[in-house]
Amino acid sequence: MEIFVVPTASATGSVAAGILAAVVRSKPDAVLGLATGGSPLPIYKALAEHSVEMGAVRGFALDEYVGLPAGHPESYAEVIRREVTVRLGLDPANVAVPDGGAPDPRQAAADYDAAIARAGGIDVQILGIGHNGHIAFNEPGSALDSRTRVEVLTKRTRQANARYFASPDDVPTQCITQGLGTIMEARHLLLVVSGADKAEILAAALQGPVSADCPASILQRHAHVTVVADEAAAAKLAPGTGEVTVRVAGAAVVV
């Protein structure tokens, strides 16, 4: 695991975008796992400033709400369209989002998991982390080997996402999310975190016990994880035995 600690939230996007640009240059048809939310969005803005051709890149969104009407501005299909597909010049036919409006969401979830496998799996999966340790919408208690499925959102997660809706009551209660087992099959996990309010949970995820109580702790078992955090989010990370800290372009890299 490598951890880049940078001064600001905007810098997290710049560092993560540089990593993704290098991947796409080496593999123009790379399969990216696309995350939404406050922390990952600066990545796409920064990536758009790189001179890298993205037309052959394929993408799979991490999750989607269940029950929002097609075209709803806060559906993740619409967020991905605005922030990723259009901004980066991706082919819309190459970008997939779980079908939260499907008549049978559980079947849609299973079909989505199978589609990722048919694409050859994810090369780089972008991730954020919730205040309760969720990644994607894998809430505490999620099985560490879980697959893409329908999940019930916790009250805390709905409260955190209420800022995107006109009313807290408008936040859906269910979603389709890639499972922890699905996420762990990606070849490279890229976690981006910003803000002092994420410092405690980030430390728990990276340095606490691996447990379903903190779903993001499963990242400790992955062979290739890169964490990009601003100084506020990294404030409670304690130096671990055997860690080496190197200064690179103003960022602290802990390996």
Descriptors for this entry?
alpha/beta; 12 strands
Describe it:
Helices cover 29% and strands 20% of the residues. Helix 1 (9-26) crosses helix 2 (41-47) and helix 2 (41-47) packs parallel to helix 3 (76-88). The chain is built from seven helices and twelve strands. It has helices spanning 9-26, 41-47, 76-88, 105-118, 155-161, 180-184, 199-207; strands at 2-6, 31-34, 58-61, 63-65, 95-96, 124-127, 149-152, 174-177, 188-193, 225-230, 245-248, 251-254. The model is unreliable at 241-249 (pLDDT under 50). The chain has 255 residues and is of the alpha/beta class.
The H/E string reads EHEHEEHEHEEHEHEHEEE
Lateral strand order in the biggest sheet: 5-3-2-6-9-10-1-12-11
Tally of strands: 12
Distance between the termini: 6 Å
Mean pLDDT: 93
Q: What general form does the structure show? A: globular
Radius of gyration (CA) equals 17 Å
Q: Which percent band covers the strand fraction?
A: 15-25%
What share of residues is helical?
25-40%
Largest sheet: 9 strands, mixed
Computed structural class: alpha/beta
Q: What's the helix count?
A: 7
* Uncertain parts: 241-249
